[in-house]
Amino acid sequence: MKKNKSRNIIIGIVVVVIIAVFAFFGIKGSSSNNSNSSGSNSNSNSSTVTAIKKRGVLRVAVFGDLPPYGWVNANGKRVGYDVNLARQMAKDMGVKVKFVQVNANNRVDTLNSDKADIILANFTVTPKRKDVVDYAKPYMKVSVGVVSPKKAPITKASQLKGKSLIVTKGTTAENYFTKQKNVNLLKFDSKTQQFNAIKNKRAAALADDNSYLYAWVKRNPKYTVGIKSIGPKQYVSPAVKKGNKSLLNWANKEITKLNSKGFFTMDYDQELKPYFGKEVKSSDIVLKQGK
Amino acid sequence: MAHSAINVFLEGNNISRIIGGLWTSVWIAAVSLVLGLALGTILGVLRTLPNKVIRFVLRLYLEFFRIVPTIVLLYLAYYILPRTFHVNWPASWMAVLAFTLWVAAEFSDIVRGAIESVPKSQRESGLALGLNKMQLFRYVLLPQAAKLELPATINLATRVIKTTSLLMMISIMDVVAVGQQIIEANNQQYPNAVFWVYGLIFILYFIIDYPLSAWSKRLTAKHSR
Question: Where in this chain does the record put each ABC transmembrane type-1 domain (chain B) (predicted)?
Answer without folding.
Answer: 22-213
